[in-house]
Write a structure and sequence with these properties.
The chain is mainly beta and about 290 residues long. It has one helix at about 20-25; strands at about 5, 15-20, 30-35, 40-45, 50-65, 65-75, 85, 90-95, 100-110, 115-120, 125-130, 135-140, 155-160, 165, 170, 185-190, 200-205, 215-220, 225-230, 230-240, 245-250, 260-265. The strands form four sheets. Strands 2, 3, 4, 5, 6, 7, 8, 9 and 10 form a nine-stranded antiparallel sheet that branches. The longest helix has 4 residues, at about 20-25. GO terms for molecular function: 5-deoxy-D-glucuronate isomerase activity.
Length: about 290
């Protein structure tokens, strides 16, 4: 099984990235990246999964259950927090874009059918997590405690150049009520360039003794994907001069939707150093309009 999917290797039909539970060899999490040309349109059946349509660049309209949601979107993932649309399972969904763009479809197999609805950018809690060289920005647009889904958990993380995120390394591959949740996770990456030079970073996943023994040390670039079925994941390292973005998509078997993690015992002490350090002054790189957090 390949856990690092380089850009261009995971596409299918209209999708630049198409990770399904079947292709990942797990049960719940999925991700599609949909590029659309000007006046482009794409229709799909949501099937047994709930989906969030999230603009990465550009704006679009999303139609589902006879409702139409106009998403203002953004120029790119580093310039603004975006609005989004939630579409339920067993729906016919159409995404159209007058000017074109790229749109993430973050999905999870689910049991309940929730209503289609719009998620305003101003309601997205923007969190500055960590401190010092571990500072990063987390846009909690569909975190477990901020937005109602059946199984899907999804957030965006922006890491300034030279910083480490997903650190200390952590895992969520065991069901331990109140302590750790079993969640499959997808990382999708983008980077800022510098004077025409594309950005890059590094992603580590190490075996935890559970599941498949996933072991990854990957150089990641624009459009790359890393699958995390189990294991300690982190750090995600942004090389100096290039900011790193990743979209995290998570889901798992528990009926109780929760993000509960365990830190790697060798590195958990790092969290205790954060109160004595300032947050990286470059953050936030972008903010939600009239942000509530």
């Amino acid at each position: 099984m390949t856990y690092h999917l380089s850009a261009g290797t995971a596409g299918n039909g209209p999708y630049a990235v198409d990770v399904t539970p079947e292709s990942a060899g797990w049960g719940y999490s999925g991700l599609r990246i949909l590029p659309l040309p000007p006046d482009g349109s794409h229709t799909f059946d949501s099937g047994d999964s709930e989906w969030i349509v999230l603009p990465l660049s550009g704006s679009c309209a999303v139609t589902a259950d006879d409702a139409v949601f106009a998403l203002h979107g953004r120029a790119d993932v580093f310039s603004a927090v975006s609005d989004f649309a939630y579409v339920p399972r067993d729906a016919r969904v159409t995404v159209t874009s007058a000017a074109g763009g790229r749109f993430a479809l973050a999905g999870a197999r689910c049991a309940r059918r929730l209503p289609a609805r719009y998620g305003p950018a101003r309601h997205v809690p923007v969190e500055l997590r960590g401190a010092g060289a571990c500072s990063r920005q987390v846009n909690n647009f569909a975190a477990a405690d901020t937005y109602d889904c059946d199984r899907l958990i999804a957030v965006e993380v922006i890491t300034p150049g030279g910083n480490w995120s997903s650190f200390p390394p952590h895992k969520h591959d065991e069901h331990r009520p109140g302590e750790e949740a079993e969640l499959e996770e997808i990382y999708y990456f983008e980077f800022t360039g510098h004077e025409g030079v594309p950005g890059l970073g590094y992603q580590r996943v190490s075996p935890s003794g559970h599941g498949r023994g996933t072991d990854v040390l990957a150089e990641v670039r624009d459009g790359d994907v890393v699958l995390v079925p189990d294991g300690w994941h982190g750090p995600s390292m942004a090389v100096p001069g290039h900011h790193m973005y990743y979209l995290n998509v998570m889901a798992g078997p528990a009926a109780d939707r929760a993000w509960l993690i365990s830190d790697h015992p060798d590195h958990a002490w790092v969290r205790a150093t954060w109160p004595g350090q300032p947050v990286d002054p470059r953050l936030p790189l972008c903010a939600a309009p009239e942000a509530t957090a």
